[in-house]
Amino acid sequence: SIGVHQTEEIQSSFTREHSSIIANSPLSIINTLYGKVNNSTTGEDANIEEDIEIKKKKIFLFACSSEALTKRLRSKTFHAILRQEIAYFDDPNNNTGALCTRLATEASAVQGATGIRIGLMLKNFASLGVGIILAFMFSWQLTLLILGFIPFLVVGSFLERYLATGFASKDKKLFEDVGKVTVESIQNIRTVVQLTKEDYFYKKYCSFLEIPYRSSIKRAYVFGLSFALANSVLYFMLAALFRLGAYLLIKNTVSFKDILSCLGCILFGAQSVGHTVSTSPDYTKAVNAAEKIFEFLNRKPIMDNSSRDGDDIPNFNGQLEFNGVDFIYPNRPESIILRNFKLKIQAGQQVALVGTSGSGKSTVIQLIERFYDANIGQLLIDSKDIRNLNLQWYRSQIGIVSQEPVLFDMSIRENIAYGNNSRNDIPMEEIIEAAKNANIHDFIQKLPQGYETNCGTKGTQLSGGEKQRIAIARALIRNPKILLFDEATSALDSENEKIVQQALDHAKKNRTSITIAHRLSTIQNADMICVLHNGDIVESGTHQELLALHSHYYQLALGKLR
Ligand SMILES: Nc1ncnc2c1ncn2[C@@H]1O[C@H](COP(=O)(O)OP(=O)(O)O)[C@@H](O)[C@H]1O
Ligand SMILES: [Mg+2]
């Protein structure tokens, strides 16, 4: 069966190669013949070796520069990806697979328009220009005749370029889809295996691969055909040239030598154009890729994650105030998530948010982290608009522990130390201190490799409770003024919940904290409990006060609203 596949591949490449060989060979023969005639009169054989040496150096320098360019484009693109606002990543077009594929393919595709290719194209265009000027000097009649053919040549190569462009952009989209499937299935391999969806994803992957394959076969034929057409113009030109040349010769208007020289110059130029045309698909792809990359690099993120512009607050207290905030997720403009949301949290206050699923609790947390900005109204941090603050500084003041903690594929020590990037070297004592406060130190010590134990990809080598406590240690080591807990204990069994809860209670001391809790038992001691319903606070107060109201909170406590 490999043979069958091979023949198809050979066929498609043959179509292209074949036409180019047929198109180019007579030219080179004539050129060689002409070159021989020329050499026998001037005899410049000795220069050839020197020429090759220069060529080698030229290729080397061009290659180096294009490799460096690819590297630079890649790192710039990655940097730009990291800078985009969170809403950018909500767009399905910008999911992991698509972005990774783009990063991998586009930067290297640009090579097609750089380095040696650019050099060659410059050379070729220069050759054409020089060729035409010289040809005019030998015989203007013949040259004019040839120039008449130039529009056809241009149309031919334009057609070719146009066809290749259409294919190139379609290809890109398809490969992004392929990337999506790969990343999604590998990232979620446990779920895929558990649902026994291996075959489904395999078939989906293959079907995606099939489309670019089919289109590339089609392209090979179309490309071969248009290439042949574009080049056939050259033969008609030659025929006309010989006819007129013979006529002029009989009329004694030009000498035989002039015809030959004119022909040589023109062929020299024409061959250069042919060369340029034959490298145009790569070139088009490259130009397309470059366009996309620069478009992306020039994209100004609505909110620049890496920005250090704006103010720091010198004696930051951790006071928060939502001042009539309306919020809509940019990718779902039809539903208003928060409506005229008002909430004031004093420095050091422990606030709990409760409410049915989908009532907007996590959204409030995301606004506090400034993953999104309010559409209407303001979020004030120590009485300053959050949008005027230095984002990097502000985020460093916040610790967050969510339901599904994400650990990186590195040691426990590094995972904890990642919480604090104000310094490069976090002393071991501080890490241990944070671990102790998070109730995880004893566990870590019992591990054979202690703090150097690897957490595995996404922390898969630890249990939920252990991961959660490491995440708490990571939040604590930055000594944040504001702590956010988004259902931090919801995924845990009651035994683990107790241990994690202890760690949380300890962490909340002397800090502003906002806790989202599923089980009301965990937030009974909060200074203020806010009940959210459809993006609005419907009641707030202490546990006792709210119970006495016999309303939303009471219903929640009885489990009726769930
Ligand atoms: N990234 C997002 N893009 C669009 N809609 C979202 C996004 N995140 C949450 N939502 C929607 O916002 C509403 C509130 O969600 P959320 O704040 O997560 O609720 P809760 O945490 O209270 O369960 C839900 O209807 C949810 O579908
Ligand atoms: Mg939530």
From TrEMBL:
Residues 60-285 form the ABC transmembrane type-1 domain. It is found in: Membrane. The keyword Glycoprotein does not apply. PROSITE patterns: ABC_TM1F, ABC_TRANSPORTER_1, ABC_TRANSPORTER_2. It is a multi-pass membrane protein. The keyword Cytoplasm does not apply. One of its GO terms (cellular component) is apical plasma membrane. SUPFAM superfamilies: ABC transporter transmembrane region, P-loop containing nucleoside triphosphate hydrolases. GO terms for molecular function: ABC-type transporter activity; ATP binding; ATP hydrolysis activity. Gene3D superfamilies: ABC transporter type 1, transmembrane domain (1.20.1560.10), P-loop containing nucleotide triphosphate hydrolases (3.40.50.300). Keywords: ATP-binding, Membrane, Nucleotide-binding, Transmembrane, Transmembrane helix, Transport. The chain crosses the membrane at residues 120-138, 144-164, 221-250. Residues 320-559 form the ABC transporter domain. It comes from the Eukaryota. Belongs to the ABC transporter superfamily. ABCB family. Multidrug resistance exporter (TC 3.A.1.201) subfamily. This is Multidrug resistance protein 1. It comes from Rotaria sordida.
